[in-house]
Design goal:
Helix content is about 35%, strand content about 15%. The chain is α/β, with parallel strands linked by helices. The strands form 8 sheets. It has an 8-stranded mixed β-sheet, sandwiched between helices. A hairpin with a 2-residue loop joins strand 15 and strand 16. The N terminus and C terminus are likely disordered.
C-alpha cells in the first residue's frame, strides 16, 4: 500500500501545487468536507446531485445553524490510486474535517488508512463490503452492508426448498466480501453451494461464455449473482444468448445489482425477465415523494433514466448521510480558525508527504455522527459500531420494463407479503407468504432447482451383477438381442420411486460387469465408481455403512437392516447324565442353594433358645441348619416350630419351595418326554475360540463386519449362491464347510424359509442400516428420492411388491419353533426370592432387637467391663446359647448339660452377694479363661467387672464337665 501511496504522491505533486497557494483567509468556521466519487459513473453523478439537494434542503430548514458544510469534490475516475491521491490532497492541502466517499469498497480500503492516520472520519454511503467497518474506527459505513442481505437471500432459497445453489461474484473487494456470509446463511437453511464462479472485473465475453457453459453442465439450476451492474448486464445478456434464461432456471441478484437494474438498457432488461432480487426496504413518505419530484424536474443529464423509475437507494443514503454530517457539525459547534498554511515548497519533499497532523475536530465529529439519529428518506438513520443498522429487505421480481414487489423479508419475521408486526404466523418459509412470481421463460412453475446436465443425457445407474442370490436383483444377458434384462424386487422399487417423483428423470440401468459378463468387483467397488462419477447412481441390495457414506450419499432405506447368524440345528440329548440340571439355569441353582442355607440359619437362630429340637452339640446345630430347609421340599420335617417369627419364615419359605418344585418338575418332565431343538453354536465368542469357519455373500460388506468381530481372514469364506451356503453349513467346519453363515435380514429370512428344518438363527441381531439407493455427494436427487421412498412405504406399495415377488417361495414345513429348549432363569423367581428374603430379614431384626432389649442390663455390664473384645463376644455367645426359660415352653431337660433347670446340684454354685433380682440361673457372665475357677473343685473366682460393688456375679456358672 505504501508503494501505491508513494505513486499517488507524484501525481499530487504535479496536480495540486497551485492549490497549495490558494488563499485561506476567507475560511471561517465552516466545516471542510471532502467528497470523492466516480463522477463519470451513473451512481457517482447521481449521488452528487442528491447531496447537492440535501445540502440546500438542510440549511433551508435549519437557517439558524452557524456551522456550515463546505464541499470539496474530487473525481476518483474509478481507480483506487486516484481515490487515494484525492484523499491525500484533501487531507494535506484542504485540511478537511471529514471525507464523504469513496464510492467503491476497493477505494475505501486505501483511503481509510489515511483517515485513521489523520483522525478524520471517512464516511461512505456506497462501499458495502462487510469487512470494511472493522478495519478502523474512523471509517463509517453509512449504508447497509452486504452481510445484512444474506438472510433475505437464504430465506428465498429455503422457501422454495432448493438444496443447492451456484454463487457468481466478481473478483473484487465488493464481490468477495459477501461470500463467507452467504455460505454461512445457506448452511443454516441446509443448502449447499455446489460451485463458485469468480469473474474478473474486466472479464471478456469469451470468459463469460466459458463460465456459463461450465455452469450449464452442472445439475444445479439456482444462481446467486453478486457483481457490479455493468458486469452483471453483460452476464445476463450472454446467459440469455445461450439459453440459461429459460424455464427451469432460477436467478437471484443481490442489492447492488437489483437497485440499478432499472437503469440498464432495454435489451438487458429483457434478458433479466423473471429474475428475483433483494434491496433495502424504503418506507413511503411525503418527504420522499417531494424529493423525487424535485429531482425529476432538475433533469440531470449526467444520470440518464433517473426519472424513469424509483430512486436508487444509494442516492437516498447520500442524502441522509449529508444531513447526518450537518447535524453532527452543529453538535460540535464553532471551531477555531485554521492555522496559516506553511509554505508549500516545504511539502515538496516526498519523505514528508504523509507527515500531516491530526485533526482536532475529526474525533469530535466522529463521536457526534455516531450518536446522530433521525428519520431520513431511506428510513431510520442510526449507526451501530460504525455501521448502518440493518433493516428489512424487499423481494423484487423483474417483469417487463418494471419491477414487482413479491414479498418483504424482516430479520425477526422472515418473509411476509406485508410487513405486519402483529402477525401470528410462525411458518416463515411458506410459499403462501409471497405473491405470485414469473420465473425465467415466462413460467409460473417454481423451478425445482436442478436438472439432468445437458439436454437429452440420461442418468447412468449402476446395478450389481451376481451369479447367485438373485432373488432381489437379477441381471440376465439376452444374447439374441445383445441386451441385458434387469429385474428383481429392488429394481421394481427403484422404478416405482422414480415414477413417484414430481418430475421426469431419464435414466438407464447399466450392469456393473466385465466384458465377459462377470461382476466387475465388490459392492464397495461399485460405490467407488459412483464417487468417481463414472455412474450417476447405484441401486440394488446395497447396505448403508459408515465407511461408504464418506464417499457417497444414501437415500432413506427402503428395506430393513441388520445382520444375523444362521447355524445348523441339533437336538438335545435326553440321555445325558446331567440332564436333571438343565431345567434351571446356573444362576438360579446357586441362588436357590444360597437361600436354602440362609433360611436354615435364620430358623435355627429364631428357635435355638426356645426349642429343644434346635439344641445340642455343634455338629447337631450345623446338621439342623442344612437339614431343615431341605426337608421342607417334601414336607418331611418333624421339628416343632415354637417361635412365631420362625413360623412366619417357614410358611413363606414353603410357598417358595412349592412354586420352585412345581416349575422344576414340569420342565424336567417336558425335557424327558419331548425332543428339543438347540443351536449347534450359541455365540460369536465360541466360534472364534474354536477357530471355526464362517461364511457370507461374496462382495458383501459383511466380510469387513466379521473382521471387526475378531475373525481371521483365513476363517472367512464367501459364497456366490444359497446352494453353496447350504452345502457348507451341512458339512460343518470339521468337514471343510462352515459352522455359521452371516447375512443381512432380508436374505437370511429368504434362506431360512427354504431350510428352516435344518438351520436356525442364534445370537443378537447386529444393528445396521438397511438397503438404500446411492447417489454422488451433494446430489439434489437424494432428498426427493427419499421423500418418494417414504411415500411408497406409507401407502403400502413396497409391501405389495414384496408379496408379488416372494409369493412363490415355498413354505417351510420344518419343526415347530415352540419346541426349542427353554431353561428357566433367575429372572422368573426374583420376586419370590425378594419376598422370602425380606420376610426372613425382618423377622431376624425383630428377634435380635427383642433379645437385646430383654437383656439390656446384662449386655450393658458386659460392654462396660474391662475384659477384651473377644472375651465380651464369647460371653454374649454363651449367654445366647442358653435356654430361654421365660418363653413359656415345657421345662424339659437341657440337652447340653443334662441338668434340670430347678436342680440344686453341687455343680451349681450361687454367689454369696447375688441380689434377688438377678437370681435367674440361665444368665451367665464369662470372663477371660484365667479368671475361671478350676472346674473340678467348682471353686468360683470373682469376676473383675468394673465398679461392681453390689453385684459380683450375675448368673450361674455351669461347669464344663
Amino acid at each position: 500500500m505504501k508503494l501505491i501511496l508513494l505513486f499517488c504522491a507524484s501525481l499530487w505533486l504535479c496536480s495540486t501545487f497551485s492549490n497549495s497557494q490558494r488563499s485561506v483567509h476567507n475560511r471561517t468556521s465552516n466545516f471542510q468536507v471532502g467528497v470523492i466519487l466516480d463522477l463519470k459513473s451513473v451512481v457517482g453523478s447521481m449521488c452528487l446531485s442528491c447531496m447537492s439537494i440535501a445540502l440546500s434542503d438542510f440549511y433551508l430548514i435549519h437557517s439558524n445553524y452557524s456551522p456550515r458544510l463546505s464541499l470539496h469534490v474530487r473525481d476518483s475516475q474509478g481507480q483506487a490510486i486516484e481515490a487515494a491521491a484525492a484523499g491525500l490532497n484533501l487531507l494535506k492541502d484542504i485540511k478537511v474535517d471529514a471525507i464523504l466517499g469513496p464510492q467503491k469498497s476497493a477505494q475505501a480500503n486505501f483511503l481509510m488508512d489515511l483517515g485513521d492516520r489523520a483522525q478524520v472520519p471517512i464516511i461512505s454511503f456506497s462501499a458495502t463490503s462487510p469487512s470494511l467497518h472493522t478495519r478502523t474506527p474512523y471509517f463509517v459505513q453509512a449504508a447497509q452492508g452486504d452481510d445484512t442481505q444474506v438472510g433475505a437471500i437464504a430465506a428465498i432459497v429455503k422457501t422454495f426448498q432448493w438444496s443447492q445453489v451456484v454463487m457468481i461474484f466478481e473478483d473484487s473487494e465488493y464481490g468477495s466480501g459477501i461470500v463467507p456470509y452467504l455460505s454461512n446463511a445457506f448452511q443454516d437453511v441446509n443448502a449447499h453451494i455446489s460451485y463458485k464462479s469468480v469473474f474478473p472485473v474486466s472479464a471478456s465475453d469469451e470468459f463469460i461464455l466459458k463460465e456459463l457453459y461450465k455452469m450449464m453442465t452442472l445439475q444445479t439450476r439456482v444462481f446467486v449473482v453478486h457483481m457490479s451492474h455493468t458486469l452483471g448486464a453483460r452476464l445476463f445478456l450472454k446467459a440469455k444468448e445461450i439459453g440459461m434464461m429459460e424455464k427451469g432456471y432460477a436467478w437471484i441478484i443481490t442489492s447492488g445489482l437489483m437497485d440499478l437494474a432499472y437503469l440498464m438498457d432495454s435489451d438487458v432488461a429483457e434478458a433479466m425477465q423473471g429474475v428475483l432480487g433483494v434491496k433495502p426496504l424504503t418506507p413511503k413518505s411525503e418527504q420522499l415523494r417531494s424529493f423525487s419530484n424535485r429531482l425529476k424536474k432538475k433533469s440531470l443529464e449526467k444520470s440518464p433514466g433517473i426519472g424513469r423509475a424509483d430512486l436508487s437507494v444509494f442516492c437516498l443514503w447520500a442524502y441522509d448521510t449529508l444531513w447526518a454530517l450537518a447535524m453532527a457539525a452543529e453538535r460540535v459547534g464553532l471551531k477555531e480558525p485554521p492555522k496559516t498554511l506553511e509554505n508549500s515548497t516545504v511539502n515538496l519533499n516526498v519523505s514528508n508527504l504523509f507527515n500531516f497532523g491530526n485533526s482536532e475536530v475529526g474525533p469530535k465529529l466522529l463521536k457526534a455522527i455516531s450518536e446522530t439519529k433521525f428519520e431520513g428518506l431511506s428510513g431510520k438513520f442510526r449507526l451501530l459500531n460504525g455501521k448502518m443498522e440493518s433493516s428489512s429487505y424487499q423481494i423484487i421480481n423483474v417483469l417487463g420494463n418494471g419491477q414487482k414487489e413479491v414479498g418483504i423479508w424482516n430479520p425477526s419475521l422472515g418473509i411476509r407479503r406485508e410487513l405486519n408486526w402483529n402477525t401470528t404466523t410462525h411458518d416463515t418459509s411458506s410459499r403462501e407468504n409471497m405473491r405470485s412470481i414469473i420465473w425465467p421463460g415466462d413460467s409460473t412453475v417454481v423451478p425445482k432447482g436442478w436438472e439432468v446436465p445437458m439436454s437429452g443425457k440420461k442418468l447412468r445407474i449402476g446395478v450389481p451383477v451376481k451369479a447367485g442370490f438373485t432373488d432381489f436383483v437379477r441381471v440376465v444377458k439376452d444374447t439374441q438381442v445383445n441386451a441385458h434384462i434387469i429385474s428383481g424386487f429392488y429394481i421394481d422399487v427403484f422404478k416405482s420411486v422414480m415414477e413417484a417423483l414430481p418430475y421426469s428423470v431419464p435414466y438407464e440401468l447399466v450392469p456393473f460387469e466385465n466384458p465377459d459378463g462377470s461382476s466387475a468387483g465388490t459392492y464397495n467397488d461399485l460405490i467407488y465408481q459412483v464417487f468417481l462419477q463414472n455412474y450417476d447412481a447405484a441401486i440394488g441390495d446395497i447396505t448403508i455403512t459408515a465407511n461408504r457414506s464418506k464417499y457417497v450419499d444414501f437415500t432413506l432405506p427402503f428395506a430393513e437392516g441388520g445382520v444375523i447368524s444362521i447355524v445348523p440345528i441339533t437336538y438335545e440329548d435326553v440321555n445325558d447324565i446331567w440332564a436333571f440340571l438343565k431345567p434351571l439355569k446356573k444362576e438360579l441353582w446357586l441362588t436357590s442353594i444360597a437361600f436354602f442355607f440362609l433360611t436354615g440359619l435364620a430358623v435355627w437362630i429364631l428357635e435355638h433358645r426356645v426349642s429343644s429340637a434346635f439344641r445340642g452339640p455343634p455338629s447337631q446345630h450345623v446338621g439342623m441348619i442344612f437339614y431343615f430347609p431341605f426337608s421342607t421340599l417334601v414336607f418331611a420335617h418333624r421339628e416343632r416350630i415354637v417361635n412365631n417369627l420362625a413360623r412366619l419364615v417357614v410358611v413363606v419359605w414353603m410357598f417358595v419351595i412349592l412354586i420352585l418344585n412345581s416349575t422344576y418338575t414340569a420342565s424336567l418332565s417336558s425335557r424327558l418326554t419331548v425332543q428339543r431343538l438347540q443351536p449347534a453354536i450359541t455365540d460369536v465368542s465360541e466360534l472364534i475360540k474354536n477357530r471355526d469357519f464362517v461364511g457370507c455373500q461374496e462382495g458383501s460388506f459383511i466380510v469387513d463386519f466379521l473382521r471387526k468381530k475378531g475373525f481371521d481372514d483365513s476363517r472367512i469364506r464367501t459364497f456366490t449362491s444359497p446352494y453353496d451356503c447350504d452345502e457348507a453349513l451341512s458339512r460343518g467346519s470339521k468337514s471343510g464347510g462352515i459352522s455359521a453363515y452371516y447375512d443381512v435380514i432380508p436374505y437370511s429370512k429368504l434362506f431360512l424359509s427354504k431350510h428352516c428344518d435344518k438351520y436356525m438363527t442364534v445370537g443378537p441381531t447386529y444393528r445396521t442400516d438397511g438397503f438404500a439407493f446411492v447417489f454422488p455427494k451433494g446430489s439434489p436427487l437424494v432428498a426427493d428420492v427419499s421423500r418418494a421412498v417414504i411415500e411408497l412405504t406409507e401407502n403400502g406399495k413396497i409391501l405389495e411388491m414384496e408379496q408379488h415377488w416372494l409369493r412363490n417361495e415355498q413354505t417351510c414345513a420344518g419343526p415347530d419353533d415352540n419346541m426349542n429348549s427353554i431353561t428357566i432363569s433367575l429372572q422368573s423367581f426374583k420376586g419370590l426370592f425378594a419376598i422370602t428374603g425380606g420376610v426372613t430379614a425382618v423377622s431376624l431384626l425383630i428377634f435380635i432387637a427383642s433379645y437385646l432389649y430383654k437383656y439390656r442390663d446384662f449386655h450393658r455390664r458386659v460392654s462396660n467391663s474391662r475384659i477384651t473384645i473377644w472375651s465380651k463376644v464369647v460371653a454374649i455367645c454363651r449367654h445366647f446359647d442358653q435356654r430361654d426359660l421365660s418363653s413359656g415352653q415345657p421345662q424339659d431337660k437341657l440337652p447340653e448339660s443334662g441338668i434340670s433347670p430347678n436342680s440344686s446340684s453341687d455343680h451349681s454354685v450361687q454367689p454369696p452377694n447375688l441380689p434377688r433380682n438377678h437370681s435367674n440361673s440361665n444368665e451367665i457372665v464369662s470372663s477371660a479363661p484365667e479368671e475361671l475357677h478350676d472346674a473340678t473343685t467348682a471353686t468360683i473366682h470373682s469376676l473383675n467387672l468394673e465398679d461392681m460393688s453390689d453385684v459380683q456375679h450375675s448368673g450361674v456358672i455351669l461347669p464344663s464337665a
